[in-house]
Amino acid sequence: xxxxxxxxxxxxxxxxxxxxxxxxxxxxxxxxxxxxxxxxxxxxxxxxxxxxxxxxxxxxxxxxxxxxxxxxxxxxxxxxxxxxxxxxxxxxxxxxxxxxxxxxxxxxxxxxxxxxxxxxxxxxxxxxxxxxxxxxxxxxxxxxxxxxxxxxxxxxxxxxxxxxxxxxxxxxxxxxxxxxxxxxxxxxxxxxxxxxxxxxxxxxxxxxxxxxxxxxxxxxxxxxxxxxxxxxxxxxxxxxxxxxxxxxxxxxxxxxxxxxxxxxxxxxxxxxxxxxxxxxxxxxxxxxxxxxxxxxxxxxxxxxxxxxxxxxxxxxxxxxxxxxxxxxxxxxxxxxxxxxxxxxxxxxxxxxxxxxxxxxxxxxxxxxxxxxxxxxxxxxxxxxxxxxxxxxxxxxxxxxxxxxxxxxxxxxxxxxxxxxxxxxxxxxxxxxxxxxxxxxxxxxxxxxxxxxxxxxxxxxxxxxxxxxx
Length: 469
Known about the structure:
It is an enzyme of class 1 (oxidoreductase). With 469 residues, the chain is of the alpha/beta class.
């Protein structure tokens, strides 16, 4: 079979093909588990899972940016892949140069994989977002070119929720200002406008993984919880869902934001919404920097309308650590720094050892499953498809993966090509205009693989063909 190694993984990168719209909502079915735990249970009775490889694993080139946790690096390196890990993001020109040769890229929140960058990624199979968000990736373009995208939607939820609880207490007691005064040598023991959080109302905007965990923690500390979300969600504990954002803003003593970056959420909290908040209330944003109109917040805090705020995210953020948080970044940075009772942190909501280790494991495991097995469970832009693993007892097997445009007649043509062989199992699913087919074929030789590959490559609907064996 070795002769087939260089012919079995040939992506299509034809930018002239018809552009299509694709739904890219994230999946709730992703789970935090290793490849072995994912496929091991029922297979233990059938033999040891067989490791499939698309070609010589030394040829798989992976680029990891933004200091991906060592746990993730170790998993990828142990597979025999060539892994280059950098501690920072890259300027766009350097990123384009690097991405041309890699099969896998791992990023966090600072790296922007837009259409201009992805057009140069001729060999790219998969993107790993070692974070919750995927708004930094053009998911539609990636799907239309057969590039799967994975993220970690759960692993740092607790870290962000705990940070928000800490910020609520810090703001209520003005701890930041008192600490800064003490560092300057000033003793200022006051109780005016310092509060317990027990009995106060927390308003959570976005009741997803983070918001719901925060709800439980806040109730345990004696707070009343209300929340607003664009969909109806079951409340945890005694929390109550508000019918409108305005209703939440009118009632909450503390408002915390946990929404994605979308056109609908840009400046979600601006002058009009700040005016609807209770006098002397507090605002916390640990979601995305574009959600809050910062100049409007500065004005509301200086007028006394808002008693305190905590911001962990900003519209523009530095690419690396250093003395970069100044007016050259957003234009109002130095003015923001001069406001009293405001907590400014450098996007550290998920930056705990536990969260980063879990994210490294979760995303790297997903990348390995996709590269070695073709499994798309947890992908945010591809149909979620899975077949049980082959076992070491099954020889002369190959797994055929065909990513194609979702147009009439494709499955009939694919089955005509596979019909000359014994197809043991097959599954297909679609998502918008992109479809993903996986089939396991038995008793195949090198010449059969060449024949299957040539047949699928010739189909006009083809986006990407892979054969794993």
